[in-house]
Design a protein that fits this description.
alpha/beta, Rossmann fold, 4-stranded antiparallel sheet, binds adenosine-5'-triphosphate, binds magnesium ion
Length: 274
């Protein structure tokens, strides 16, 4: 079934500061979108706001999947609607084992009407599936029995995010710098993993500062964020040019937004100084 994630005029504030100032974006299953932009431009803020992080307050605009507004839904309900976020900084949950966490998450997403304590996916089926996916990602099966991300290296945490992606099979995956902090081999594993999982049923928004992930997962659309707005959209060539040239040219093409970026930076420095 064709589906649409539609972000319209999205305004998001954090702790009273306006970060996103009118983001428009449409993603369909089967599409690969790259989101680029300088540090602090609002990429992670967009990712968190989409996933429903309570700290990120949506002050205007909407996020819809097939006409259903997600703004009033909590993170759980959004996951059930098909949104998945792989975090730039994955959280550690001591006391919760990887396998238990994933079995619950998979059960919730596959059976949205499920009540707590009921209807977990069958153990045998789940075990087979997790084993298969872990093998494909080159992960040691012992990880399934460890506490989620507890003591995991940076690279292991990122593989864990891809394992979640593989198990949950969301309609829309947002990958926030899933490649950062990885060595060359791990970037390859993660890139291939994403490539294997993308298909006609999943749309992906890849946030990255590196080019390799986008070589494996060539975006049809590249968006550039500056000071909380998407100021340009192009194809894979735009991603390539940005990697080569940096953001100076983007700022020159959008002097008004660049001035806003400067002003926000100055305001932040002032706030710190006080
Ligand atoms: N919880 C918060 N409290 C205060 N400011 C925040 C918070 N979260 C984000 N910001 C601010 O919002 C702006 C955008 O941050 P965001 O993390 O979205 O940027 P980014 O584009 O993901 O950058 P990077 O490329 O460094 O990951 C930054 O100025 C940041 O300091
Ligand atoms: Mg970020």
């Amino acid at each position: 079934m064709s589906s649409l994630l539609k972000i319209e005029n999205l305004h998001v504030g954090v702790d009273g500061t306006q970060i996103l100032k009118g983001v428009n974006l449409e993603i369909r299953p089967g599409e690969v979108h790259a989101l680029m932009g300088p540090n602090g431009s609002g990429k992670s803020t967009l990712a968190y706001a989409l996933a429903g992080h309570p700290k990120y307050e949506i002050t205007d605009g909407s996020i819809q999947i097939d006409g259903v507004n997600l703004v009033e839904l909590d993170a759980n309900e959004r996951a059930r609607m098909g949104i998945f976020l792989a975090l730039q900084y994955p959280v550690t949950i001591p006391g919760v084992k990887v396998a238990d966490f994933l079995r619950h998450a998979v059960s919730n997403v596959r059976n949205p009407a499920r009540k707590e304590g009921e209807g977990l996916v069958a153990m045998r089926e789940f075990r087979k599936e997790i084993k298969q996916e872990m093998e494909a990602l080159g992960m040691d099966l012992a990880f399934a029995r460890r506490y989620l991300n507890d003591g995991f290296s940076g690279g292991e945490k990122k593989r864990m995010e891809i394992l979640q992606l593989a198990m949950l099979k969301p309609k829309f995956a947002i990958l926030d710098e899933t490649d950062s902090g990885l060595d060359t081999d791990a970037v390859n594993v993660v890139s291939e993993g994403i490539n294997r999982l993308t298909g006609p049923d999943m749309g992906v928004l890849i946030i990255t500062h590196h080019e390799r992930l986008l070589e494996f997962n060539r975006p049809q659309f590249t968006h550039v964020m500056l000071a909380g707005r998407i100021v340009e959209t192009g194809d894979a060539q735009l991603a390539h040019d940005l990697h080569a040239d940096g953001y100076t040219v983007v700022r020159e093409r959008h002097p008004d937004v660049a001035a806003e970026e400067e002003a926000a930076k100055a305001a932040k420095e002032e706030a710190v100084a006080v």
